[in-house]
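COMPLEX REQUEST
Ligand: zinc ion
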Amino acid sequence: MSSTYLELRWLTVLGYGQWCPSVVSAGTDMRGTIWRDGGRGMSGAALCDCCGASIAREDGFLLPTVAIVASVAFWETQFTLAKKVVDLAGLDERQQSSWLSSSLRVHAGSRTPWLICDDCVAFFVTDYGEARSCARRGVDPPKLGAVDPSKCALFAAIAWESVMGRWPAIVMQPEVGNHCDFCGRRIYRGEVASRFPRETVQLFRAAGALDGDPLSLERKGEDGWMTCMKCTTSMGTKMLRAEGRL
Ligand SMILES: [Zn+2]
Ligand SMILES: [Zn+2]
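STATUS: Structure written out below.
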């Protein structure tokens, strides 16, 4: 059985498949992140391609680039690491834009699988059972290949805003369409979000899978609570673990 958490019995996914037509300008080339080896480096232990933690390859998950670059939480991890360098080097806004643009192209352009650890897998929408099986067997995950950077610029820009404190100039800023009822974060138009019906919240609460109670009462005239993708994947993977399926 597929272990993708995006199951209709749990929630309604809103805006899925809508990409932001943002423009990504050209910038200087970047060599890629230090630990990025997709679990294909030397034999023995490998490193998580998201956080850099040391893991055994067969204990990880293998994901295609399309799953990685659509995750705001992934970009937040990268930019939190990068912010120290940006601050230390005193990069001005133009240099930061150039760096962001390169980062987008390098990550989206990756054709190899990404090895992801048990903690970081909660950042991503994927078929977890299949991703685990690919890591165990050492085979490529489906949908492997590069992604058009303009199709993931929105997710990187949202993370940039949350880490750097401002929206990046090279990405068109969409209107705010909504907000997450669990973490309070704004949800932009074109962003992927979900709705947790009341039964889902009750089910997750009983399983100890909620990150916390919703910040507000159930929305009037709507079924349940609006949830950003970061909260959805965080709580969805906790639920799968509670069910013994992850
Ligand atoms: Zn990790
Ligand atoms: Zn949220």
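REMARKS: Helices lie at 65-69, 72-89, 93-108, 128-137, 153-164, 198-206, 229-242. Confidence is low (pLDDT under 50) at residues 1-9, 15-39.
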